[in-house]
Amino acid sequence: MVRYLVKLIMLNLVILTTIVSSDAHALDFQEWLTAQKKVSEEQILANISPKGTLAGTVIASPSRTNPDYYYHWIRDAALTMLAIQELGFGAPEALLKDFLNITKIHQDNSGNGNLGEPKYLVNGEPYTGPWGRPQNDGPALRAIVFANWATQLLNQNQLTFVKDNIYDGQWDSKSPLKRDLQYVAHHWQDLNFDLWEEVKGEHYFTLAVSRKALILGAEIAGRLNDRGAMSYYLGQAELIKNKILTFVRNKRLYATLNSVEGLTSKSSNRDVAVLLGLIHGDLQDGFLSFDNPIVNETLRDLQSSFNSLYIVNWSGPAGIAFGRYPEDVYYNGNPWFLTTLAQAEVLYKMAKAAALSAKPLKKVQSLFDQGDLVMKRVQFHVPSDLHLTEQFDKTSGFCLGATDLTWSYASFLTALHAREAALAALNK
Ligand code: NOJ
Ligand code: NOJ
Predict the structure, then answer these.
(1) Is 238 tagged catalytic?
(2) Contact 195, 203 (CB under 8 A)
(3) Nearest residue CA, atom 11 of ligand 1?
(4) How far, in Å, from the CA of 197 to the mean position of ligand 2?
(5) How far, in Å, CA of 75 to CA of 136, rounded?
(6) If you take atom 10 of ligand 2, which residue's CA is the nearest one?
(7) pLDDT value at position 18?
(8) CB atoms < 10 A from the CB of 307, how many?
(9) Residue of 194, 198, 372, 404 marked active site
(10) What is the DSSP letter of 50?
(11) Which of 406, 397, 424, 371 is nearest to 25 (CA)?
């Protein structure tokens, strides 16, 4: 009887492991990283200007039903362009030119409101149905893309192109970067919807990327002799910094303050949005840098909360699958690839910061290994064709939600890039 029971339990375990795992985990870890990089780059490029869309369109996903993500979201698109800039794959210059052109079209016709309009049809027109708007992270992220590009062009002495197309330094400007910066500088204090499009309030993520946009933008303004704008942007960035400090509570970063509309269920104020804010708001200027104890506390707090929340975390690799936030009910509330990958990216950046500040090698190596465990968790849930959806089921581990989510691929690539940077610092 006992033997029979043991057998039955073993059998169940075998079935369970085959359910939650997939073929991708049969690959050696290094092999998987290489293969996943290739697929991620290909699938991102496939989601940019696909047939039937206006050039420059970045679809969030090819999925047109359940969910319908066949739109250009300002946030997803900008984060995708940032990954392309960081990794340098495809033809960045040509892709950025298309992105510049479509941005002009979006800015000229933002429909319902202003530049905080979050989502556009693939023909360049704004989506006019009911939605959480405005979302002010979009123009900030887009400004970071253009500021990066302008910096690169100015370094190559392409002043005329920058002035004619990206930042003209005129009052009431029609040039894309200046328009986004003006919007961010004037509207960062406005209550707006968060990156998950659910809560209207003040958000750390949005403020973090706004601060970064203004500081990078001020540098461009300075180089183009737009002195007034430069000091205005810097002044606003300083005010944002002070505002951000109010999000530090109980030694960790809170996601949202002063919510006035939308979901009210996010009582824990635990949200992976803050890790994304640390990643995309980082200026390597010592402000909330990856060796700050607040970062560590925020990360550990999220880990303990998600660890017990999802059944998938009870078996498989030790790395913890992350969702967006514990109270999430979208598709019943599951882990997401992009948030789990953000956790890995933060761990690698913590490892690099520890290496650079000459922390004991054991500590550096441990952070790096923790990053790898999280990547192995991702590998565990990736299907054999290495295509990434938005989510994976919290119980079975199977992929679900939007197929080929562009942002999932971008998150893999930037996490991998952070891994390489950590490795280089470790081997120095
Ligand atoms: C679509 C949004 O994009 C998503 O973030 C949200 O959770 C659902 N709508 C439900 O509100
Ligand atoms: C839902 C996510 O919550 C939101 O952040 C994203 O912009 C859209 N999906 C499109 O991917």
Answers:
(1) no
(2) yes
(3) 198
(4) 7
(5) 9
(6) 60
(7) 42
(8) 14
(9) 194
(10) -
(11) 397
Contact 388, 337 (CB under 8 A): yes
Q: Residue 203 CA to chain centroid, in angstroms?
A: 15
pLDDT score of 113:
65
Q: What's the start-to-end Cα distance of the chain, in Å?
A: 59
Closest CA to 358 of 295, 425, 299, 294: 425
Ligand 2 site residues (CB inside 6 A) read: 60, 69, 73, 75-76, 195-197, 407
Distance of CA 420 to the CA centre of its chain: 18
Q: Which residues of the chain have pLDDT under 50?
A: 1-21
Model's pTM, two decimal places?
0.94
Q: Which atom of ligand 1 is nearest to the CA of 197?
A: 5
Residue 143 half-sphere exposure toward CB, CA atoms < 13 A? 33
| Beta bridge partners of residue 201, listed in sequence order | 192
Report whether residue 392 contacts ligand 1, using a CB cutoff of 6 Å: no
Question: Of 277, 259, 279, 406, which is closest to residue 327 (Cα–Cα)?
Answer: 259
Tokens found for residue 196: 């998950």
Residue matched to tokens 């690169």: 152
Q: What is the pLDDT of residues 375-408, one digit of tens each?
A: 999 999 999 999 999 999 999 999 999 999 999 9
| Residue 41 appears among annotated catalytic residues | no
Distance 195 CA to ligand 1 centre (A): 10
